[in-house]
Design a protein that fits this description.
globular; PyrdxlP-dep_Trfase_major
Amino acid sequence: MAKHHPLEDLEKACAESGLDMADEQFARLMDSRDPLRAFRDEFHYPKMSDVLNTDLSLVDPSADCVYFCGNSLGLCPKKTKEYMDVQIDKWAKMGVQGHTNGELPWAWCDECLEEDMTKIVGCNREEISIMNGLTVNLHLLLISFYRPTKDRYKILCESKAFPSDHYAFESQSKLHGFNPEDVMICVEPREGEYTIRTEDILAVIEREGDKIAVVCFAGVQYYTGQLFDIPTITKAGQAKGCYVGWDLAHAAGNVPLYLHDWNVDFACWCSYKYLCASAGGLAGLFIHEKHRSNDFPKLLGWWGHDLSSRFVMDNNMDLIPGARGYRVSNTPGFLCVPLKASLEIFSKTSMEELRKKSLLLTGYLEALIRRSYQRPVGQKVEDDGMSVYIDIFTPHDPQQRGAQLSLAFNVCIEELFKELEKRGVVCDKRLPRVIRISPSPMYCSFLDVHRFMGYLRDALSAAKASLGHLNTQKV
């Protein structure tokens, strides 16, 4: 049976309304039908006049910019400042007593947010902890789960893993006296393809599994936007005796996750991308309840000591079972504030509802790009010196992607990125060829997508005209 694609819903809406998909009125129609449209008003959405590098002669300064960079930093919830003022006022008036009083008592402020976070990643409360930054948490987890032996010592990950993950794997292997080149198995896409097939990952696990200590992939691959098949890969790795963990930096708040039900061993994620909890915001850590009372090696700190006896100060560790026991230092109370503001908004809907909109929104963007810029079958980058083409690195199958399309151009992306910035489009580039476009369903609209397509058209024309040639750089 063929998989349902959001394009079918979009085409149905076109047929029923008599509108063309590229018409502005169609975008407005889709926005009017969006049950989540009111959430945009709960965020500060930047204006054209406020974002840097915008040429205000090309746009309406009072209009909203096109913010398609939730995959890097989510927008600021409007409640953040109000909640931050409460904490500053508490500090000013109470001093140290703020640790145990008022909203978000600093001594357990992270625990106040756990229940809402469980709904984002799909787990039980005792399976998570809100703490540190993502890579710190990854290291803490690897100390426990990467315990190499002479026979089982390898780490399986994707090629082009995010640099922090790659460096963490390298450094952990060195700490155990191994050569990273011998330890790391980096799965590559097939020749001529951009993403990694699940079947190829499973084949490596089947072939090398007896030597693999840890399988650790990104939930959503940052460069291509590919959503990996987390439950299938987890089951396959564990069947070969491997621990399986996930970096969910680009997945948390983006796609529905069911870490407990998927039997994932461990996971970590940040909160500043789709979760909108401020730059460098607090990260999360997950350990499945089956490892709740583990005796794995771990780094210990005072904040992993049970609160009931923490202040006895007798230096006899009363370790909290599960994820909270991995806390090393007290949680920075002020960093809980933006996360509280964001999670309150998320709690008004569900990841399943956000996913429904995301599929339509990203599908709409994909449809418009393919209509205008799809390369003819068999056409190579260097075959045509005049036409502009866009290759979409992100899978066409909506079940294999989140709220991101990674676009590759035969126009120099350095120049194109500048031209997009001039028109108030906030996105990001990843060399050598990709510009990442991420219409976050929490606050982005179909009209944003329609406006982006107009700005993209103008930016492509300007970039090509300024350079006088096309870019033929490979992936």
